[in-house]
Amino acid sequence: MASRSMPQIRRQHRSLKHQQRRQLNDGANLPSPVAPPAVSSTEP
């Protein structure tokens, strides 16, 4: 079970980094609307 959760969390982590970079490029117009939910999703 943990093995299955590992890849999912790793994938979300990559998405978060990618989104943060994209937002930075966008000019940080939004207050990270996808950052809070993403972190909550990784938590049990």
Automatic annotation (TrEMBL):
Region feature Disordered, mapped onto this chain: 1-44
Bias kind Basic residues: ranges: 10-21
Name this protein carries in UniProt: Uncharacterized protein
Organism whose genome encodes this protein: Arundo donax (Giant reed)
